[in-house]
């Protein structure tokens, strides 16, 4: 048995001799679990300091052993320095039997160690939202009312930043009336901080050799959540990645979903046979960056799960984002410093290592993402839409009725508009600054040079290792064109970009076909995802641009969670960055109204 130790705080996570018993004593028994679950349909626990996940595993096992079939547990946990899944297995393995296979299941579902919010449905009734961030920053972003707090983490003397007035104040903001907390520490400043935040605090006998611990109950007015009815029938207008992802996420939650797409699934820009999935990089961490980080980690997990049962053309080959100018160099360096990604998942490499990783000679260093890769958006859409009914009908009018929304003669509880610029034709949708961008990709016959390529490359254009004897090289970016006719000059442009950064691949490359599509992006290059203000049950998911595989997939998950009153899966700042109302709010600020 190994005693787990944190290098950051020079402190142990728990004592191997009695850590499991102490976790149950402090956090389960002194939060009155399972009695507190009672007949609550939905119970929310929030934890400061995920560590090895020991407390979560204890709560998960207890809940499933004692809860009624209609009950659900949502567990939010914050962790600034996440461990690797292999370390969690190593540290907790000797207690595996106590968790009945849950430890191994959790390790298999563990997300990439990238800063952001990571929703994991560990069972039909238990959802973990694992938030890799500083709790002082991230608690501001949570809006879900909390029933119970596990105040864990390293000792206040070792990690005073976590035991801050900010944390205590946010606990007061988020707690339901009567919410309980428990913690192993009895430090005076912790008790005083919690009392100032509205908790009645008591000192109790600690576990084992620890003399004291603290417990308490929130006596303030309490946070009250919304109780909106869950929709049962949902219409999705649009059959690209964004629409199909929303349909899949809603169908998983038991909704009957109908997709309206006049030209068939993946008939537009999502119909490309090959596409890369990468975040949109920025220098600073923000709501937008947390959205893309969470979307990237989610996509990597979803694609691995889907590929076990379906052919989606998925190849997790990694991606090298070449550093082609000084601006990109500064941005990538700032990303590496600010976004909170472990080097297992993103690191800067020089030209020599980039060449070794890719299998072709490169003259530039790169940002390397080993978990990135390529897949077929067209095949992905087919799989995601498989649980929905498909109607090849053009939706021209949405009508608000007392029962919900009438769409082409049928009434639905809610509607998701994922139809690119077509969203603007419907009454009730505000004016959105959307721009159409034509892009053409070139299909290149596999040759000796392409057979050596081991990773995807991004360089202003992109290419990936061959599939079925062909490589896809792309893409043009033409906001001034609105047709999808293939242009020979676009094939030449794609190969010229490739030749500038990977000349061995471009030499002798033979174009044998191509495909053009129209992508739609918002003016600020951030997708537009969320509920239309003042139009209950009407959602949009548009403006995904060139990162639509990631943002469309995550957008569907977010809409489903929001529509169903489910666990919060994106921070408040990300929701504001995506909101359809953001443009009107900005204009109001500019005009001073």
Textual characterization of the structure:
There is one protein chain. With 593 residues, this protein is α/β, with parallel strands linked by helices. The chain has 3 domains: 5-218, Vaccinia Virus protein VP39 (Rossmann fold, 3-Layer(aba) Sandwich), CATH 3.40.50; 233-268 and 379-433 and 525-591, FAD/NAD(P)-binding domain, CATH 3.50.50.60; 319-370 and 435-522, D-Amino Acid Oxidase, subunit A, domain 2 (D-Amino Acid Oxidase, Chain A, domain 2). The chain contains 18 helices and 29 strands. It starts with a strand and ends with a helix.
Number of helices: 18
Radius of gyration: 25 Å
Please name the CATH topology of the largest domain: Rossmann fold
Mean residue pLDDT: 92
Question: Which geometry do the CA atoms define?
Answer: globular
Strand order of the largest sheet: 5-6-4-3-7-8-10-9
Distance between the termini: 64 Å
- Fraction in beta strands: 25-35%
Number of domains: 3
- What share of residues is helical? 25-40%
The biggest sheet, with number of strands, parallel, antiparallel or mixed sense and barrel status, is: 8 strands, mixed
Oligomer category: single chain
The CATH superfamily of the largest domain is: Vaccinia Virus protein VP39
Instruction: Assign the structural class, choosing from mainly alpha, mainly beta, alpha/beta, alpha+beta, or little secondary structure.
Output: alpha/beta
The CATH class of the largest domain, by name, is: Alpha Beta
CATH structural architecture of the largest domain:
3-Layer(aba) Sandwich
Number of strands: 29
The low-confidence runs, each spanning 5 or more residues with pLDDT under 50, are 9-14
């Amino acid at each position: 048995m190994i005693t787990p130790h944190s290098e950051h705080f020079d402190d142990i996570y728990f004592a191997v001799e009695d850590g499991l018993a102490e976790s149950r004593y402090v956090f389960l028994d002194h939060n009155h679990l399972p009695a507190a679950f009672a007949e609550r349909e939905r119970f929310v626990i929030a934890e400061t300091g995920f560590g090895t996940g020991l407390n979560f595993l204890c709560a998960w096992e207890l809940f499933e052993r004692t809860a009624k079939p209609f009950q659900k547990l949502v567990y939010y946990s914050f962790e600034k320095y996440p461990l690797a899944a292999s370390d969690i297995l190593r540290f907790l393995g000797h207690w595996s039997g106590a968790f009945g296979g849950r430890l191994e299941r959790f390790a298999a579902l563990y997300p990439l160690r990238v800063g952001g919010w990571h929703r994991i449905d560990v069972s039909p009734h238990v959802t973990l939202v694992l938030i890799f961030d500083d709790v002082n920053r991230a608690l501001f972003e949570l809006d879900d009312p909390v029933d119970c707090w596990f105040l864990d983490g390293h000792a206040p003397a070792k990690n005073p930043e976590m035991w801050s007035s900010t944390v205590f104040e946010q606990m007061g903001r988020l707690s339901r009336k009567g919410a309980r907390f428990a913690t192993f520490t009895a430090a005076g400043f912790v008790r005083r901080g919690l009392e100032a935040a509205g908790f009645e605090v008591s000192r109790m006998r600690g576990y084992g050799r620890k003399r004291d611990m603290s417990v308490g109950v929130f006596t303030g007015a309490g946070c009250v959540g919304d109780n909106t009815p869950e929709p049962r029938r949902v219409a999705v207008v649009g059959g690209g990645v964004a629409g199909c992802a929303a349909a899949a996420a809603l169908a998983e939650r038991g909704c009957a979903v109908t997709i309206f797409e006049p030209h068939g699934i993946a008939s537009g820009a999502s119909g490309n046979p090959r596409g890369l999935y990468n975040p949109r990089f920025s220098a600073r961490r923000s709501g937008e960056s947390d959205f893309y980080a969470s979307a990237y980690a989610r996509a990597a997990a979803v694609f691995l799960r889907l590929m076990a049962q379906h052919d989606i053309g998925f190849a997790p080959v990694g991606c090298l984002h070449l550093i082609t100018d000084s601006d990109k160099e500064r941005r990538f360096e700032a990303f590496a410093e600010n976004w909170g990604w472990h080097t297992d998942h993103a690191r800067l490499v020089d030209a020599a290592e980039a060449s070794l990783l890719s299998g072709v000679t490169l003259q530039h260093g790169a940002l390397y993402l080993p978990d990135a890769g390529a897949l077929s958006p067209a095949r992905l859409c087919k799989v995601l839409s498989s649980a929905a009914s498909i109607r090849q009908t053009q939706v021209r009018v949405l009508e608000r009725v007392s029962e919900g929304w009438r769409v082409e003669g049928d009434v639905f509880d809610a509607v998701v508009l994922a139809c690119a610029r077509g969203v603007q034709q419907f009454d009730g949708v505000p004016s959105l600054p959307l721009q159409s961008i034509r892009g053409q990709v070139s299909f290149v016959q596999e040759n000796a040079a392409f057979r050596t390529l081991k990773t995807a490359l991004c360089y202003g254009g992109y290419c990936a290792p061959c599939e079925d004897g062909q490589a896809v090289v792309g893409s043009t970016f033409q906001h001034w064109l609105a047709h999808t006719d293939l242009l020979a000059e676009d094939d030449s442009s794609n190969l010229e970009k490739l030749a500038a950064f990977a000349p061995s691949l471009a030499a002798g490359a033979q174009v044998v076909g191509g495909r053009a599509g129209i992508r739609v992006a918002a003016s600020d290059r951030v997708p537009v995802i969320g509920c239309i203000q003042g139009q209950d049950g009407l959602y949009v998911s548009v403006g995904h641009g060139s990162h639509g595989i990631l943002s469309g997939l995550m957008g569907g998950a977010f809409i489903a969670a929001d529509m169903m009153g489910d666990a919060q899966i994106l921070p408040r700042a990300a929701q504001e960055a995506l909101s359809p109302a953001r443009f009107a709010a900005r204009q109001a600020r500019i005009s001073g109204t």
